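Sample intake sheet
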Amino acid sequence: MERLPTEILSVIFSLIAHDPTANPMSFAAITHVCSRWRQIALADGSLWSRVVLTYPLYPHHLSYAISWLQRSANAPIDIFLDLRDPSWDWNEDAHNFRWQEMEPIMRIFLPHVCRWRRLELLMDTWAPIFTFLWYTRHVKSAPILETVSISRCNLYFAARGQVFRPISLRQPIQFFGEAALERLTSVSLAGVHINWNQPSLRNLTNLELKFHASDVMPSIQQFAAIFEACPSLIHLALFGWGPIFDIPSPVRLLSNLEKFSFGFLDTHYAIRLLSLFEFPRLEEFVLEDIGKVVSPLEVEDSTNLLLWLASASTGTSPTSMPRGDGSDLSRYGPLTFPLANIRSFELHGIQHVTNPDAVRIIFQRLTSLTKLTLYNDVNSILELLGVPIAGSQPFLLPLLQELRCQDMDPEILLNVVTSREGSDALVPLNKVSFEFTSRTSALTAGSLVYTRLVSAGIEVYGSSGSWITR
């Protein structure tokens, strides 16, 4: 070790310091090994640029944060605050981390706002986030800030009929005020109530709006203004509610999105929202039914939404499609969703479909698809891929190369893989994986099904097994 050049030691230290799975506080031990190591570590400010605070928070943690900020010198800093209490009883007023605990943190970090590069906040309750927004509302400049992620981790506020709480802190606050955020490209807001009329949300390439109360979302005009201010937006994620439809006149949102992640709670609202968009460059689409996690007692029939999507790339009027509940889909305007262009498609939690033809028609429209991911969906969706069809193509999704499944029937997956093998009209499946995360789908390493999956070249992983690589 004594003969290692300084440059190599610096690289080793950097790998340790920037390991996202490691506790940064443990890195300080390097400075106590010997005088040479201490000199090398303290001379490089970038080694101290990742500052992490987690719950429970004690006074010495704040001292550690101050030391890290001092040692980082002029280096850009990444801030990660995860102050969620695992034993919290869901009483908003009884949380042990309140605005009073957030204030000293803001006083420590705010003087260094000119060096903020990445910021992530994870909180259970609203008061600490309100405190953060309150302190940053007068920031004039954050010249190197690239990524901001703020999450109030209480997704139940997104349920139907829920309103934002606490009412006393409902007033919208400016997101970084009038600050010039020239380098900000990625913003993720979950359960966060801000003033949507502001210049901060502009020139973004990634925008995520998740699990907000429906009464504090932007109006349709504000939503359209954000899109106009972000012409280079590549990825949009909407989970729960999007804009408030407060005007009857239609709005068209033309976007250069390449990836769209959409978690829906209400199919009629979802169709109305999707009908606003033009997606000429869309290649990746993630569709998730989040109703089960937000409102476990409510069951949403996904049929109408799937039928709407199925007719999207053909320009077919939705009134000519079979419907799950007889409702009128024609009022949602022209169909512009480009299924034929999509190369990667993910379905999550699609558990209730009254019309089995809905997914089959979608698969018929996905003529360019090369990657399919199915997470916790009904097994009949997976089963479609192994059933021969009439016509020039023997199976659905003839260009499919990668198939990933989670918590689904392994026997059906085996049938799909073996059925599609050897067909000259299909692109070979070069990567198939099966993941189990629940007890009901768990496999025992060495069991017959496990062995058959591995023998078929399927990667298997989960809580009781390791990766089996094809």
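Comment: Residues 59-71 form the longest helix (13 residues). Residues 317-330, 464-470 have pLDDT under 50 and may be disordered.
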